[in-house]
Specification:
Layout: H1 2-21, E1 24-36, E2 49-62, E3 65-74, E4 77-81, E5 84-103, E6 109-126, E7 136-154, E8 159-169, E9 177-188
Antiparallel strand pairs: 1-2, 1-9, 2-3, 3-5, 4-5, 5-6, 6-7, 7-8, 8-9
Length: 189
């Protein structure tokens, strides 16, 4: 009998807390324009900007806080210098935490601040495949810190559009990071 009462008490605490959280899951997609913000010795072969797309899944935990997981993949970029081609791309995945400030009478506008972490994969290949030794290049996997700000406009209770700016910083790497501007849509369940 004591165990039953204890379990009923614990269950009621979780039910009260779940109601207070107002958990709202959502999914989304973003178009990103990424700018490398430090020059390097390979500027003549490596593009200074990349176009990429992101898929996200997140949960709004309260009207003021959300968490989001993302996966990002860039479009392949090719550059030619003295007949030598470079082929570059990058991809990333990670998590962000959002602070949200609802604006307007009905909260249709939201100011967003974000901080997170991501794992970035960068791949560069140089040279034609017809050479005897084939193309050469490098692949790097780097952890980066993400900080950003943006705005979201909620068209309906379920649909929203978002614009964000983020700075991604790497420690002791060349380049030290890059900046991203993104436009996207969100669907809340």
């Amino acid at each position: 009998m004591k165990k039953t009462l204890l379990l009923a008490g614990v269950a009621s605490l979780f039910a009260v807390n779940a109601e207070a959280l107002e958990l709202t899951p959502y999914v989304g997609a973003d178009y990103n324009l990424n700018f490398v913000n430090k020059s390097s010795n390979l500027d003549f072969m490596v593009p200074g900007k990349y176009h990429s797309g992101s898929l996200v899944a997140g949960a709004k935990i309260s009207p003021y806080f959300a968490v989001e997981a993302f996966g990002e993949l860039s479009k392949h970029a090719t550059k030619k210098y003295f007949g030598v081609k470079s082929h570059t791309e990058y991809g990333a995945y990670g998590m962000d935490a959002f602070g949200i400030l609802p604006l307007g009478c009905y909260g249709e506008w939201e100011l967003l601040g974000t901080a997170g972490i991501g794992r970035y994969r960068s791949e560069q290949k140089f040279g034609p495949k017809s050479l005897d030794f084939g193309p050469f290049g490098a692949t790097a996997h780097i952890w980066g810190v993400r900080l950003g700000a943006g705005v979201q406009y909620n068209l309906t209770e379920n649909w929203g559009v978002r614009a964000m700016y983020r700075h991604i910083a790497f420690h002791n790497k060349d380049p030290r990071g890059f900046d991203t501007m993104s436009l996207g849509v969100r669907y809340a369940f």
